[in-house]
Specification:
2 copies of one chain form a homodimer. In chain A, α3 (62-72) links the parallel β3 and β4. The first copy, chain A, folds into 2 domains: 2-137, Response regulator (Rossmann fold, 3-Layer(aba) Sandwich); 142-203, Orthogonal Bundle (Arc Repressor Mutant, subunit A). By secondary structure, chain A is of the alpha/beta class. The mean pLDDT of chain A is 83. Chain A has helices at 11-22, 36-45, 62-72, 87-96, 108-119, 127-137, 149-159, 164-171, 175-188, 194-203; strands spanning 2-7, 27-33, 50-53, 77-82, 100-103, 124-125. In chain A, strands 2-1-3-4-5-6 form a 6-stranded parallel sheet, with helices on both faces. The A-B interface holds A 94-95, 99-100, 110, 113, 117, 121-125, 127-128, 130-131, 133-134, 136-138, 140-141, 158-161, 163, 191-196, 198-199, 202-203, 205, 208 and B 74, 94-95, 99-100, 110, 113, 117, 121-125, 127-128, 130-131, 133-134, 136-138, 141, 158-161, 163, 191-196, 198-199, 202, 209. The structure holds a DNA duplex.
Chain lengths: 209, 209
Amino acid sequence: MIKVLVADDQPLIRASFRRLIDSVPGFQVYGEAATGAQAVAVAASEPPDLVLMDVRMPELDGIEATRRICAADPRARVLIVTTFDLDEYVYGALRAGATGFLLKDTPPAELIRSVRAVASGDSLLGPGATRRLIERYVSRPARRLDITEREREVLVLVARGLSNAEIAQTLYVTLSTVKTHVSSLLLKLGARTRVHLVIAAYEAGLVQG
Amino acid sequence: MIKVLVADDQPLIRASFRRLIDSVPGFQVYGEAATGAQAVAVAASEPPDLVLMDVRMPELDGIEATRRICAADPRARVLIVTTFDLDEYVYGALRAGATGFLLKDTPPAELIRSVRAVASGDSLLGPGATRRLIERYVSRPARRLDITEREREVLVLVARGLSNAEIAQTLYVTLSTVKTHVSSLLLKLGARTRVHLVIAAYEAGLVQG
DNA sequence: GCGCGTATCGGTCTCAGGACCGATGCGCGG
DNA sequence: CCGCGCATCGGTCCTGAGACCGATACGCGC
């Protein structure tokens, strides 16, 4: 039996969620909270398997409550359910330890599927949130680097922390050649030092393992 | 009318998708492809609004086909639909430009919702894929840097590309002090040059990567 | 053929970066 | 009180980095 805690400042929303969750076999709402502080307190006294958490709540917002609950019990799964689909919420929530992020206008059937998924350790985000998360992850198309293939190789090695001499050895060319390429990169990317090259490489997604 | 291209090496799957898509108002399958190369060719002759793409295909796999189609037409939306839910696929697909990633056992209703979402610019991933993407995103603060608060400030500025002199001006201290902090950072983080510091900062998520 | 871009190489020169030496003041805990 | 860590500052010394100068060779299109 998955023990669910519902945290929302609106009693109607809580009741609605409770009905929905209780209708799912294997799930049961064992507690409710109207504030973030209450949610933390309830979670502390009786650890939930899953928390349905609103973001906007008095005393302590849902993000901070999520952070504390997850800090106290890393096994806890938190599914943020909110009216808004704002970036700061999503990223903050994920960093705080939330497992999922859904909008309140999500159809009940999908919400149930999400609850199941989150309870089993998977994650679900609303479409917009997923898109932005992906964009953050592959924020490549930001600026496409207009450099030659060889320069790209050199840039990657620079971004890995190799010195010019080390790059020369790696590519089987002389130090002079590497310096030429680096200078060309500095010019093309508008960088002053190789540090800027490293930053550009990370921003462009050329590296990042 | 959203023009959809279905790419899968199995005719039955293609037929199934075609029926499903055509049943959605506003969507129509205008072409099919049995290989990645065919998909690229069809997309080149008649640009699709949306592509349903299998990963495992002869000649050219779905990832590479996605890369070429997206490179040729950045407006193209590609939804990867595959039997497997492997990491390399997901990350490769996203980097290649895919907008979504779903499993073939996804219920038709959810698949339709996904198609709509992708067509409208949003994204959808399978639960497992979303979880791993989130883990990648928030795996930053994994390695905690054992440095002082002041050193952290200096590190961030170094990672932003500032020279020691610029950092000194920013923090209202002398060049000597900055050099001391930088040296301390180099020692603590096991770095040889400030480039390594930048890398460490990005890996640790101290700066937006 | 000629121009152009790319990749390769060599030299000189200046300077920021970093090592290594020293120092002071301050807060904090044994 | 005394030791310790942190932040601050000053000096010397050496080296890699990068600018700037030059060059050759190759492939490509006009």
